[in-house]
Hints:
Layout: E1 15-21, E2 27-36, E3 41-50, E4 56-58, E5 66-70, E6 77-81, E7 92-97, E8 105-110, E9 114-119, E10 125-132, E11 148-149, E12 153-154, E13 159-166, E14 172-174, E15 181-187, E16 193-199, E17 208-214, E18 220-234, E19 240-246, E20 249-252, E21 257-262, E22 268-270, E23 296-299, E24 302-309, E25 312-318, E26 326-329, E27 334-340, E28 346-352, E29 355-363, E30 366-369, H1 375-380, E31 387-392, E32 398-404, E33 415-421, H2 435-442, E34 446-450, H3 460-463, H4 472-487, E35 491-501, H5 503-512, E36 520-524, H6 530-536, H7 540-548, H8 557-561, E37 575-580, H9 589-601, E38 605-610, H10 617-620, H11 623-642
Parallel strand pairs: 33-34, 33-35, 35-36, 36-37, 37-38
Antiparallel strand pairs: 1-2, 2-3, 3-4, 5-6, 6-7, 7-8, 9-10, 10-13, 11-12, 13-14, 15-16, 16-17, 17-18, 18-19, 19-21, 21-22, 23-24, 24-25, 25-26, 27-28, 28-29, 29-30, 31-32, 32-34
Amino acid sequence: MGRPLKPEDISKLTLVSNPTLSPDGSKALFLVSKADLEKDTYVSRIWHVDLSSGEVEPLTTGPSDTCPKWRPDGKAFSFLSRRTLKEGERGQEFWVWRPKEAEPYLVKVFKGGVVAYEWSPNSKDVLVITVKGEPEEDVKVIDTIPIWFNGKGFTYWGWTGLQILNTLSGEVRDLTPDNLNVTAASWSPDGSRIAYLATPDKLRPYISEVRVLNLKSGEETTVAKDLTAYDIIWSPDGSKLAVLGHRRPHGLLSHTRVLVIDTSTGEEVSATENLDRNVGNTMNSDVRAPSCCKEFRWVGERIYFLADNEGRVELHSVKPSGEGHEVIISSEGTVDEFDISADGRILYTFMDPTHPKELFLFSGGEHRKLTSFNDELLNELTLSKPKHFRFKVSDDKELDGWVMLPPNTETGDKVPWVLYIHGGPTTQFGWSFIHEFHALNGKGFAVVFTNPRGSTGYSESFADIRGRYGERDYQDLMEFFDEVIKRFPELDGEAAGVTGGSYGGFMTNWIITHTDRFKAAATQRSISDWISMYGTTDIGFYFVEDQIRCVPWKDVEPCLKQSPLMYVENAVTPTLIIHSMEDYRCWMDQALALFTALKVKGVEAKLALFPKENHNLSRTGKPKHRVKRLELIAEWFEKHLIKSGVGRSGKDR
Length: 653
């Protein structure tokens, strides 16, 4: 038997991402990344695979190379890096490498960084979305919102503009006016037009317009308005556009769809209207590396896309009309990214609960594994596969549940356990690799998880909990608690903890203020007060109105009713609060307010604040911080679930 996984094993995992096929489909590029605990950073390099021989080899030395893309003529590829920039210096570099040459060459340094880019069919020009404007170094004089954005810092001073980069001269040409935010863009197949998504109203950044610019005449047309949209691609014949988005039938909790728009008539068809699942990949995992892969492709007469489905992420395809829907790849795992060749070969990354992502090829009806970077580490370890079951809750809905017992759990053992609640709420748990779950297993805790109301992977109505946070979702979780105790006698009903981040942190806060059945809690990047959330965060001013049905100065009651802070008088559960000091999605005041309230109430509480980290600490934070965070959580649960006395009464309040 191997050893259990440890928090510091994050540095031994190899993260594979960004599968990118060459134009002729004979070879591919992908990214290989690792956490370096000694230097407290991540190293990423570009690798190459020959699909005929299966030979895999590194191409670049890194340490910060990302986003590889083939030039359309197949004679070169590009990538982004920070090779010449100093620590803390703004910007990102655009590099091109012709394989016949010894070294890549630097084309341009984009001071605002590169949000996204795409080669022109002429193999000379590149369409670039970059951040424009100049930040203020000292006093911040602000006249717009949001003032900041998670992972980016202060953003009030800038906007995302669209440019064309000439890779021969390094010159750039602006295509869009100042203060118009561009979120996605795509060349037409003949290179004569550019389609892009624009969000003209900063107060409603979730509202997009689809615009098409004729590069020769300069004429621009708006072909669709009032969409919530995330990405855009052209049909192979250049007559239509496919957009990942929706028109908010269930507000911001609506399923993302594949919308097909005729550029001449503006006619719009939802190609996935008959698929009551979210299009995209919202699976939770903490072992992902940077990627520029799109979540959909238009090849021939079919559109290929990822979709969430009951704890899996699958690869689907459909005709633009919405007919002929097919599931291409589906199993107890996650298709995380993909690319597809003209002849239908599919290059993809895949993970399951006991195997981190590796690179695979699907061709001729067969799957072939191309990389095995993590095999050596996995051979050292003993990892538990989650035990899956389905169960009915009190309103007769059927939910999915998973239980990960620690390795080597024996019959008759009584195991302390942790209910883990995902964020979002529109994400899902399921068949993915989560380092944190295995690390908690390694400390002797079972990890149990489910997809309550609000999760993706199910129907659109299932996901819609607007105005009802803490109601049916809370009930689902409490009924799940009862179900796992009944099904798994190994789980010690008197030694249960609860944790989660973001929405999962909100729900952890809601739980400790509405029941005492958990002996300890660890709330992470959480929400405790919706009024403060509305006014201090990057998305709060529209998210809270949509989700909680509250504008504080118009109708404060829903904000108060659904804020855990209002129920702290009921709290008795020892609570660890973890928050990042640059978390602008759920700002630090959420943690401070809860910590203060618990302390005044006399509840045992500990606050851990991580400097220079944002909302994504558990996924992309500094390696040392990620290890420290896991150690704090494990120590808290060890203290209260293993070393303390009897459990609580288990009564809801």
